[in-house]
Structure to design on (280 residues):
DNA sequence: AAACAAACCTGTGCGC
DNA sequence: TGCGCACAGGTTTGTT
């Protein structure tokens, strides 16, 4: 579910509501969500710790603790982080509950029906062994302020279909299926173009499109689709889905050329949406 | 190296 | 109404 804008929205919610608070008690339901370590490791790592910051790299949430350890949460497809009043009825698939000290009495929930997501506390001194994928993440367009030159170098470095390259978290981190399709459409570039044959002019447009789509999606609180799976920590839905021009609009009129119809095809196992008329 | 497919899970929406 | 199938925001692993 969540891509960079949704994860950034959650990060901001954590910064506002959780940073500075101590975790008094931790409950772990399904052990699968703490599979990288163990139920006990998460409880021991979090109990008594205060969250000192809320960070993000790509789709990874990274929260340093006053113990020197760091909390990492990845929402994957269906994960949610919610701040709720203490004692409030928990939704199905609430796998981790962190009881926050102070008033009002609140809890931070990790909810995840599909349990692809995970929660882990790790020691930053041993990040290479404990969360090795962090070191392999590519440039984060927003956090790193990806420049056109940086982007051009990445696109030109290899010959890959452009959508596959944009989705590769080792190259650029944070873009997922929705924002990939939206960016390619805004730039007028087809998903299956060879990256090393994208022209300098198109690279400029695509870079601008990525930055614009991600920024506007963040300002819109992300995209909440029909299943309303994704919401911020306060339970509030995003509204960028109202601005989608291709994603989930198969068969509908293209909002750019207003002549073509949006087509949906399978590309690398992902539903891919584009306008054959204005994307070349 | 790049392109696929499958795997990990549960829920929902659709056609019949 | 019920059933079965397709499909879903992500990432890793293994195979051509």
């Amino acid at each position: 579910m969540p891509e960079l804008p949704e994860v950034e929205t959650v990060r901001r919610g954590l910064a506002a509501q959780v940073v500075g608070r101590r975790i008094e008690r931790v409950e772990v339901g399904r052990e699968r969500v703490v599979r990288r370590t163990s139920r006990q490791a998460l409880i021991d790592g979090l109990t008594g710790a205060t969250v000192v910051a809320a960070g993000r790299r790509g789709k990874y949430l990274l929260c340093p603790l006053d113990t020197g350890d760091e909390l990492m949460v990845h929402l994957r497809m269906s994960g949610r982080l919610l701040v709720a009043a203490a004692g409030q009825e928990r939704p199905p698939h609430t796998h981790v509950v962190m009881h926050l000290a102070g008033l009002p009495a609140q809890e931070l929930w990790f909810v995840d029906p599909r349990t692809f997501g995970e929660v882990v506390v790790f020691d930053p001194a041993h990040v290479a062994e404990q969360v090795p994928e962090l070191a392999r993440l590519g440039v984060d367009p927003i956090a790193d302020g990806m420049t056109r030159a940086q982007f051009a170098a990445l696109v030109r470095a290899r010959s890959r279909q452009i959508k596959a390259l944009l989705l590769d978290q080792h190259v650029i981190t944070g873009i997922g299926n929705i924002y990939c399709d939206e960016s390619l459409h805004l730039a007028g570039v087809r998903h299956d173009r060879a990256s090393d044959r994208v022209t300098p002019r198109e690279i400029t447009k695509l870079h601008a499109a990525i930055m614009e789509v991600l920024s506007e999606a963040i300002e819109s609180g992300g995209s909440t689709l029909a299943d309303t799976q994704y919401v911020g920590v306060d339970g509030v839905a995003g509204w960028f889905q109202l601005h989608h021009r291709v994603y989930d609009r198969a068969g509908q009129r293209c909002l750019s050329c207003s002549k073509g119809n949006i087509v949906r095809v399978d590309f690398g196992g992902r539903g891919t949406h584009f306008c054959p008329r204005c994307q070349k």
Summary: DSSP finds seven helices and ten strands in chain A. The CA atoms of residues 10 and 131 of chain A lie 21 Å apart. Helices of chain A lie at 4-17, 39-46, 127-130, 148-157, 162-167, 177-187, 200-219. Strands of chain A lie at 23-28, 55-57, 60-64, 70-74, 80-85, 94-100, 106-111, 118-122, 263-267, 270-274.
